[in-house]
Design goal:
9% of the residues lie in helices and 45% in strands. The protein is mostly beta strands. The protein folds into 2 domains: 164 residues, Galactose-binding domain-like (Jelly Rolls, Sandwich), CATH 2.60.120.260; 141 residues, Galactose-binding domain-like (Jelly Rolls). The radius of gyration is 27 Å and the shape is globular.
């Protein structure tokens, strides 16, 4: 060994020398794994769309045609870099989710993986809720629309499919709400398991309410998939079934009718201190639903019978309130629970319940407590339950003909 090198090594402390040698020799400590690559385009919003003065490349905005909604990209409030995007709304007269979005075409390489959306957010005077939404779809029309560079309706037209026959299906869905009026920068996260059959993933960052929310440094990464969670018989699968946590884990179906509201009521409750209240959902032309629900990974529920129930209270409802379970699979498509008891007019707390057999190919299951809209009146919902009853009973065996009988 040359004398200068020998002298240099002699001056190095032994612990550091051992670490140096083991990190360079075969069998030494493994290097730190490189961070997962984001699937999002322009997740830091730094690149500008060609030919546009401020729009970020790779992103789109929802359409509301309301003069009270503003989308922007500026350098005033940023998490890192030079640019961030924001959405601001000055009126909640028409309840809508105004959002920045990105559509990603995906294939088999994503199936069975866990998709994780992370976004840094900052609330400025939010009155209502901001959100992240991560959705996995089987949506051929959206896929071809992106490939052809046209909108969704034009893609349906080119494929000869009517709007009512659009075969799109949501296969995984996770919304994360946050409602603090003012915050510094906070990193939010939403995760879904990407089911087989997914060809489009939607990422949305939005606001339902008034105020402003700023978004920056978004990423969407894939990691190893997770096995389905074990479900015990009789276990209530709903998170926050009594709405005591302000229904922040529930997904809300709120039609864009002027004045329509889904809110927490702490003056009326079946149990605990709160219920969810549906009001002012009469001013609309298109028939839909209003209420709350939660989606579930169907892998642990396939071939099982489930029961959905909830307590309802109504005041002068000129429509119906009911519970409904939907299951969606690539072969069975969309199946739903059968007709059951429905409530109308004025009544005190009453429980509604329905049982449903989950198909063997189900990918996602929705359990909903809702009312038909448009309709006048007020509905309260509380103490919801969604539980597994056990395997679907086999069909009754065909009766055997008596011995000695002859066939004609």
């Amino acid at each position: 060994m040359p004398k200068p090198l020998r002298a240099l090594l002699a001056a190095v402390p032994l612990p550091f020398l051992a670490l140096l040698l083991t990190s360079t020799l075969p069998g030494g400590p493994a290097r730190a794994a490189a961070p997962a690559k984001s699937l999002l385009q322009n997740g830091d919003f730094e690149r500008t769309l060609a030919g546009h003065p401020w729009m970020p490349a790779g992103w789109d905005t929802s359409l509301a045609d309301l003069p009270t909604v503003f989308f922007g990209r500026d350098t005033f409030l940023v998490h890192t870099g030079h640019w961030a995007v924001n959405v601001a709304n000055m009126s909640a007269a028409y309840p809508m989710g105004h959002n920045w979005s990105q559509t990603l075409l995906v294939g088999k390489e994503t199936w069975g993986k866990t998709a994780t959306l992370k976004v840094w957010t900052r609330n400025n005077g939010v009155d209502g809720r901001a959100y992240l939404l991560l959705q996995a779809y089987s949506d051929t029309a959206s896929k071809m629309a992106r490939i052809w560079g046209v909108d969704h309706d034009e893609a349906l037209k080119r494929m000869g499919i009517g709007k009512i026959d659009d075969p799109l299906m949501d296969l995984a869905w996770k919304r994360v709400w946050f409602e603090e009026p003012l915050t510094e920068w906070v990193e939010r996260e939403a995760k879904v398991q990407v089911p087989p059959g997914t060809n489009v993933i939607f990422v949305r960052c939005g606001l339902s309410g008034t105020g402003q929310v700023v978004f920056d440094d978004a990423s969407l990464t894939l990691s190893a998939g997770m096995p389905p969670a074990k479900v015990a018989k009789g276990q209530n699968l709903f998170a926050d079934p009594g709405f005591e946590a302000r229904d922040m884990v529930w997904d809300i179906a709120l039609p864009p009718y002027e004045g329509a509201k889904v809110t927490i009521d702490t003056t009326v409750a079946h149990g605990g201190r709160a219920s969810v209240r549906l009001t002012e959902f009469w001013n609309g032309l298109v028939e839909t639903r209003i209420g709350v629900g939660q989606p579930f990974d169907a892998r642990a529920l396939r071939g099982q019978r489930v029961r959905l129930s909830g307590w309802f209270k109504g005041d002068s409802l000129k429509g119906i309130a009911y519970v409904k379970v939907f299951a969606q699979g690539l072969q069975s498509r969309v199946t739903q629970s059968p007709g059951a008891e429905m409530l109308s007019n004025t009544w005190d707390w009453q429980q509604l319940s329905i049982e449903f057999d989950i198909p063997d190919d189900a990918v996602i299951v929705w359990a909903n407590l809702q009312a038909q809209a448009p309709a006048r009146g007020t509905v309260w919902i509380d103490d919801a339950s969604f539980e597994l009853l056990g395997p679907v009973p086999p069909p009754p065996a065909a009766a055997k003909p008596p011995q000695g009988s002859k066939k004609n």
